[in-house]
Amino acid sequence: MGCSGMGRKNSRLALAGVLAAVFVGVGELAAQSSEPAVEHVRRAVDLMGGEEALRAAERVRLEMTTQWQRPDYGAAAFRDRPSFELHDDVRDYSIPAWRNTRDFGTRTITNVVRDSVAVTDMGDGPQPLSVAYVDERDELFVYTPDRLVLALLDAPDLHALGDTLIGGERHRRVGARLAARYPSTIYLHAGSGLPTRLSFRAGHFADFGLVPLGEMDVDVWYSGWRTFGGISIPTQWDVWRSGARYKRMTVRSADFAPHFVAADSFSVSPEERADWLASAQTRPMHESVPVEEPAVHDGFVALGGFGMPAGAIDTGAGWLLLGTGQASFNYDRALHLLRPAGVDRIRAVLVAEGRIANGGVRRAVENAVPVFASMAAEPLLGRMLRGERVARAHWTTVTEPVELGAGPGRVVIAPVDLPDVPGAAMLYRPQARWLWVPDAVTPLDVRIARARAESLGWRVERVGTPRDLGLDGPGSM
Predict the structure, then answer these.
(1) Across the chain, which distance is largest between two alpha carbons, in Å?
(2) Domain 28-280 identical in fold to domain 289-464
(3) Where are the beta strands (DSSP E) in 122-215?
(4) Three-class SS string for 265-306?
(5) What residue ranges do the domains of the chain occupy?
(6) Residue range 155-202, pLDDT digits in tens
(7) Phi and psi dihedrals of 337, rounded to 5?
(8) Per-residue pLDDT tens for 5-60?
(9) Taking the complete model, does pTM exceed 0.90, yes or no?
(10) Integer Cα distance of 121 and 111 in angstroms
(11) Which CATH class is domain 289-464?
């Protein structure tokens, strides 16, 4: 059915009005609630079982499923590559302690966090566990919904923030500092009275996978309400980090009066505590990874160690660092390791991986080192820089082949579309007939990269991947 130009214009104006109504700011909503913030919270507490019942539930057992979702900031959908984990989550809030038994199908791992100490048992006895799990316990206990509403009641700074709309539905907003470290906004549905969303900012600076994002926006969405033994909770918790899906936690069953002995469930012996305090696990994950001495090749210096840059290459006009490391610590560590191998100064860095890595890019930008980024990495890197409020500078996004250096050290960086990483980047050194594809994780990726190299007229004899720079042979695949 056709319509006139005026009709289309009016339709667009009408649509704009609808969208404006849905996303209207707090100040534009009429008839704000006149009730104090604590009354909104008390209503939720009463609906969830009452304050007495919630406070009495100091020990809880939750049978859960977590769907892990790889955060992705590209335009295409469904690239989160989910994985699934069953786990038996047992807590004693009075200690505070957390025992999480994780079932991956092929193996079972039990992690115990008691006060400030973490241990794990993978079937061969207790071992020290990263301090990152202490941080995870702290955050998890904050956003667990029945604990959240109690924390709001207890918060001395609880205050109303005014109403807003989510999907056209009115929500009461209240604010408070939770657990003395999370300035938070909580959204309570004006109709049902129950919490829908929790928002705060936090960094996981000890967690290997999350440290690149720095301080980030965290959103937890609640849905799927069920009642267990008189206490009502949402059974689906969707966690978003820095604006992308991170994980979906589903409560399959909940027991708010479980029969277990705390000493047995959360036991950490004095010996285990001493082992933990003396171990590298008290440091952030990316700082405790062992590194290897640099391996020097003809114009190459390879680095070893998970989360470290792959190495550096002499372009004939200065050294190019291959990656920036998981965090600024790893960037600085790499420079320290490279100096004895003759790398006196880094002239530029290549940041290619289309996944959360290369948090050291902040240090490169702060040091005014030129950055060459793949199209796949660029949106991720933007989030990392914004998280630490670092302005992007000296930046080139590789959308077409770029030459660096001169003479036999000359290299070319070019884009390549891999099956799961469109807009990846690959590096070619003509003199060595060497190709490096840091996003190539399967033989199919390598085949496609080789075909792309051939189309550019490159003669490739050796291929490097994330697992192997391929300097001594054909590479790992």
Answers:
(1) 80
(2) no
(3) 126-128, 159-166, 169-178, 182-189, 195-202
(4) HCCCCHHHHHHHHHCHHHCCHHHHCCCEEEEECCCEEEEECC
(5) 28-280, 289-464
(6) 999 999 999 999 999 999 999 999 778 899 999 999 999 999 999 999
(7) -75, -30
(8) 444 344 444 444 444 333 334 434 545 667 899 999 999 999 999 999 999 999 99
(9) no
(10) 7
(11) alpha beta
Q: Which one-letter amino acid corresponds to residue 267?
A: S
Contact 371, 351 (CB under 8 A): yes
Distance between CA atoms of 450 and 462, rounded to whole angstroms?
Answer: 10
Q: How far apart are CA 188 and CA 173, in angstroms?
A: 6
CA dist 25 → 255, 283, 338 (Å): 40, 42, 52
Neighbours of 220 (CB within 10 A): 25
Tokens of 162: 């005014």
- Whose tokens are 């860095």? That residue is 349
CATH architecture classification, 28-280:
Clam (2.50)
Condensed to tens digits (0 to 9), the pLDDT of residues 135-149 reads: 999 999 999 999 999
Give start and end residues of each alpha helix (H) in 109-265.
132-143, 145-154, 262-265
DSSP state letter for 4: -
Alpha helices in 208-267 (DSSP H): 262-265
Distance of CA 191 to the CA centre of its chain: 33
